[in-house]
Specification:
alpha+beta; Nuclear Transport Factor 2, Chain: A; 3 helices
């Protein structure tokens, strides 16, 4: 699963939402504090919205395992222009 996580975050670095979306199963369930629980196309569309609004965007990721990654994004918040630095430890569950 490390390969799919690496593919997803490499695409995220490039704001390549269609490659990001291709990494998801059609029945994906995504959850985080900012967006709550999203399923299927709603999860894919969240990334399309985020990447489409990205300003001064820079993403790094490391510590990829079969079910986790650490990533950091630095960008200007579109509504205020203020710099944001998100530090995220993401975990994944893969079905069979």
């Amino acid at each position: 699963m490390k390969a799919i996580i690496t593919k997803f975050y490499t695409a995220f670095q490039n704001l390549d939402t269609e490659t990001m979306a291709s990494c998801y199963h059609p029945d994906i369930e995504f959850e985080d504090p900012g967006f709550g629980k999203l399923k299927g196309e709603h999860a894919k569309n969240m990334w399309r919205m985020i990447c489409g609004n990205a300003k001064d965007f820079n993403l790094t990721f490391n510590s990829v395992t079969d079910n986790s990654v650490h990533w950091e994004a630095i960008y200007s918040f579109s509504q205020t222009g203020r710099k944001v630095h998100n530090k995220i430890n993401a975990t994944f569950e893969f079905g069979s």
